[in-house]
Design a protein that fits this description.
Blueprint lengths: L2 E4 L1 H9 L5 E2 L12 E9 L8 E8 L4 H7 L1 E6 L1 E2 L2 E2 L10 E8 L2 E11 L7 E4 L5 E5 L4 E9 L10 E4 L2 H11 L8 E3 L12 E3 L2
Parallel strand pairs: 2-5, 3-12, 12-14, 13-15
Antiparallel strand pairs: 1-10, 3-8, 4-5, 4-9, 6-7, 9-10, 9-11, 12-13
Protein backbone atom coordinates (compact mmCIF):
# COMPACT_ATOMS: atom_id res chain seq x y z
CA UNK A 1 0.00 0.00 0.00
CA UNK A 2 1.40 3.37 -1.01
CA UNK A 3 1.62 5.96 1.73
CA UNK A 4 0.23 9.40 0.93
CA UNK A 5 1.43 12.61 2.57
CA UNK A 6 -0.11 15.93 1.68
CA UNK A 7 0.27 19.73 1.61
CA UNK A 8 2.96 21.29 3.84
CA UNK A 9 4.79 18.00 4.33
CA UNK A 10 5.24 17.78 0.57
CA UNK A 11 7.05 21.13 0.62
CA UNK A 12 9.32 19.93 3.42
CA UNK A 13 10.24 16.84 1.45
CA UNK A 14 11.09 18.90 -1.62
CA UNK A 15 13.40 21.07 0.48
CA UNK A 16 15.04 17.92 1.81
CA UNK A 17 15.90 16.82 -1.71
CA UNK A 18 18.50 19.56 -1.93
CA UNK A 19 20.69 18.18 0.85
CA UNK A 20 24.17 16.79 0.32
CA UNK A 21 22.76 13.24 0.45
CA UNK A 22 20.96 13.74 -2.87
CA UNK A 23 23.20 12.16 -5.51
CA UNK A 24 23.30 13.17 -9.13
CA UNK A 25 25.54 12.80 -12.14
CA UNK A 26 28.02 15.63 -11.41
CA UNK A 27 29.63 17.77 -14.09
CA UNK A 28 33.10 16.90 -12.81
CA UNK A 29 34.29 13.92 -10.82
CA UNK A 30 37.34 13.50 -8.57
CA UNK A 31 36.80 10.32 -6.54
CA UNK A 32 38.34 9.94 -3.07
CA UNK A 33 40.87 7.07 -2.94
CA UNK A 34 39.40 5.96 0.40
CA UNK A 35 35.89 5.62 -0.98
CA UNK A 36 34.38 3.83 -3.96
CA UNK A 37 31.83 4.39 -6.70
CA UNK A 38 28.62 2.65 -7.69
CA UNK A 39 27.28 3.64 -11.10
CA UNK A 40 24.31 2.86 -13.29
CA UNK A 41 21.29 4.38 -14.99
CA UNK A 42 17.68 5.14 -14.25
CA UNK A 43 15.49 4.98 -17.36
CA UNK A 44 11.85 6.04 -17.63
CA UNK A 45 9.18 4.47 -19.81
CA UNK A 46 6.90 6.80 -21.73
CA UNK A 47 7.64 10.11 -23.36
CA UNK A 48 6.40 12.50 -20.66
CA UNK A 49 6.83 12.21 -16.87
CA UNK A 50 3.68 11.43 -14.90
CA UNK A 51 5.04 13.09 -11.74
CA UNK A 52 7.10 16.18 -10.91
CA UNK A 53 9.70 14.71 -8.50
CA UNK A 54 11.12 11.18 -8.22
CA UNK A 55 13.41 9.98 -5.42
CA UNK A 56 15.24 6.68 -5.15
CA UNK A 57 16.62 5.88 -1.69
CA UNK A 58 19.56 3.66 -0.82
CA UNK A 59 21.05 2.56 2.49
CA UNK A 60 24.11 0.75 3.78
CA UNK A 61 23.37 -2.85 4.79
CA UNK A 62 26.71 -3.29 6.57
CA UNK A 63 28.37 -1.37 9.39
CA UNK A 64 27.09 0.10 12.63
CA UNK A 65 24.29 2.61 13.16
CA UNK A 66 26.58 5.62 12.69
CA UNK A 67 27.99 4.20 9.44
CA UNK A 68 24.52 3.54 8.07
CA UNK A 69 23.34 7.04 8.94
CA UNK A 70 26.40 8.68 7.36
CA UNK A 71 26.16 6.67 4.14
CA UNK A 72 22.42 6.74 3.46
CA UNK A 73 21.38 8.75 0.44
CA UNK A 74 19.01 9.26 -2.45
CA UNK A 75 18.90 10.10 -6.13
CA UNK A 76 16.43 12.80 -7.08
CA UNK A 77 15.12 13.32 -10.59
CA UNK A 78 12.93 16.24 -11.61
CA UNK A 79 10.04 15.53 -13.96
CA UNK A 80 9.32 19.21 -14.49
CA UNK A 81 11.86 21.49 -16.15
CA UNK A 82 11.25 25.16 -16.95
CA UNK A 83 7.67 24.63 -15.76
CA UNK A 84 7.07 21.92 -18.38
CA UNK A 85 6.70 18.18 -17.76
CA UNK A 86 9.75 16.76 -19.48
CA UNK A 87 12.72 14.47 -19.04
CA UNK A 88 16.20 15.95 -18.86
CA UNK A 89 18.44 12.90 -18.77
CA UNK A 90 21.82 12.13 -20.30
CA UNK A 91 20.84 10.02 -23.34
CA UNK A 92 18.05 7.91 -24.90
CA UNK A 93 15.90 10.94 -25.80
CA UNK A 94 16.75 12.33 -22.35
CA UNK A 95 14.88 9.46 -20.64
CA UNK A 96 18.01 7.74 -19.27
CA UNK A 97 19.87 9.32 -16.36
CA UNK A 98 23.40 8.37 -15.35
CA UNK A 99 23.96 8.19 -11.61
CA UNK A 100 27.15 8.01 -9.56
CA UNK A 101 27.18 7.16 -5.86
CA UNK A 102 30.40 7.81 -3.93
CA UNK A 103 30.39 6.25 -0.47
CA UNK A 104 32.48 4.37 2.06
CA UNK A 105 33.25 0.73 1.17
CA UNK A 106 30.51 -1.70 2.20
CA UNK A 107 27.29 -3.37 1.09
CA UNK A 108 24.29 -1.29 0.14
CA UNK A 109 20.82 -1.55 -1.38
CA UNK A 110 18.24 0.63 -3.03
CA UNK A 111 15.34 0.21 -0.61
CA UNK A 112 12.48 2.51 -1.56
CA UNK A 113 11.23 5.10 -4.04
CA UNK A 114 8.83 7.98 -3.71
CA UNK A 115 7.30 10.54 -6.04
CA UNK A 116 5.56 13.89 -5.80
CA UNK A 117 2.65 14.07 -8.23
CA UNK A 118 2.88 17.83 -8.69
CA UNK A 119 4.51 20.86 -7.16
CA UNK A 120 2.46 23.17 -4.95
CA UNK A 121 0.41 22.99 -1.75
CA UNK A 122 -2.01 20.37 -3.11
CA UNK A 123 0.69 17.96 -4.28
CA UNK A 124 0.93 14.54 -2.66
CA UNK A 125 3.91 12.25 -2.03
CA UNK A 126 3.57 8.49 -2.51
CA UNK A 127 6.17 6.14 -1.02
CA UNK A 128 6.63 2.51 -2.00
CA UNK A 129 6.98 -0.56 0.13
CA UNK A 130 10.53 -1.38 1.07
CA UNK A 131 12.54 -3.66 -1.22
CA UNK A 132 16.23 -4.40 -1.78
CA UNK A 133 18.28 -3.98 -4.95
CA UNK A 134 21.70 -4.91 -3.52
CA UNK A 135 25.09 -3.57 -4.55
CA UNK A 136 28.61 -3.29 -3.17
CA UNK A 137 31.06 -0.41 -3.00
CA UNK A 138 34.75 -1.26 -2.92
CA UNK A 139 37.61 1.00 -1.83
CA UNK A 140 39.03 2.72 -4.89
CA UNK A 141 36.79 0.65 -7.16
CA UNK A 142 33.88 1.22 -9.52
CA UNK A 143 30.85 -1.08 -9.38
CA UNK A 144 28.23 -1.10 -12.12
CA UNK A 145 24.82 -2.07 -10.75
CA UNK A 146 22.71 -2.00 -13.88
CA UNK A 147 19.79 -0.06 -15.26
CA UNK A 148 16.75 0.64 -13.10
CA UNK A 149 13.93 0.88 -15.63
CA UNK A 150 11.08 2.77 -13.96
CA UNK A 151 7.52 2.26 -15.25
CA UNK A 152 5.48 5.35 -14.42
CA UNK A 153 2.13 3.79 -15.34
CA UNK A 154 2.64 0.34 -13.85
CA UNK A 155 -0.71 -1.27 -13.05
CA UNK A 156 -1.37 -2.56 -9.55
CA UNK A 157 0.29 -5.93 -8.99
CA UNK A 158 2.87 -5.52 -11.75
CA UNK A 159 6.54 -4.49 -11.35
CA UNK A 160 7.41 -0.82 -11.12
CA UNK A 161 11.20 -1.20 -11.55
CA UNK A 162 13.01 -3.63 -13.84
CA UNK A 163 16.70 -4.24 -13.08
CA UNK A 164 18.70 -5.14 -16.19
CA UNK A 165 22.30 -5.35 -17.42
CA UNK A 166 23.26 -2.73 -20.00
CA UNK A 167 26.91 -2.65 -19.04
CA UNK A 168 28.45 -1.92 -22.46
CA UNK A 169 25.92 0.77 -23.35
CA UNK A 170 26.10 2.56 -20.00
CA UNK A 171 29.87 2.36 -19.74
CA UNK A 172 30.14 4.05 -23.14
CA UNK A 173 27.91 6.90 -21.91
CA UNK A 174 29.90 7.26 -18.69
CA UNK A 175 33.15 7.40 -20.69
CA UNK A 176 31.70 10.20 -22.82
CA UNK A 177 30.81 12.27 -19.78
CA UNK A 178 33.92 11.49 -17.69
CA UNK A 179 36.66 10.55 -20.17
CA UNK A 180 39.53 10.84 -17.68
CA UNK A 181 38.18 8.36 -15.13
CA UNK A 182 39.63 4.83 -15.10
CA UNK A 183 36.53 3.03 -16.39
CA UNK A 184 38.60 -0.03 -17.38
CA UNK A 185 38.49 -1.17 -13.73
CA UNK A 186 34.67 -1.13 -13.60
CA UNK A 187 33.16 -4.40 -12.37
CA UNK A 188 29.79 -5.47 -13.71
CA UNK A 189 27.80 -6.52 -10.65
CA UNK A 190 24.25 -6.11 -11.93
CA UNK A 191 22.19 -7.86 -9.22
CA UNK A 192 20.36 -11.00 -10.23
CA UNK A 193 18.14 -11.23 -7.15
CA UNK A 194 16.99 -9.37 -4.06
CA UNK A 195 13.91 -8.46 -2.08
CA UNK A 196 11.26 -7.69 -4.70
CA UNK A 197 8.92 -5.92 -2.27
CA UNK A 198 6.07 -8.28 -3.17
CA UNK A 199 6.59 -7.82 -6.88
CA UNK A 200 7.57 -4.14 -7.11
CA UNK A 201 11.00 -5.13 -8.47
CA UNK A 202 11.73 -7.48 -11.37
CA UNK A 203 15.30 -8.73 -11.79
CA UNK A 204 15.65 -9.35 -15.53
CA UNK A 205 17.65 -12.58 -15.83
Amino acid sequence: MMKKIYALLCLALIAGCATKSADASPQTLSPSPDKGLAVGTITFEGDVPVNDIYRFFYNATSGDKAFKKANAGKIMIKGRNNNVSSFNGDFNNKKSYLFIIEREPGTYAFTQYSYLDHLGPTGSVDSSKEFAIPFEIKKGGITYLGELNYVDKAVKGSPRIFVADYFSRDLEELRKKYPTLGWQKTENQTPKSGNTGDGIIDFRY
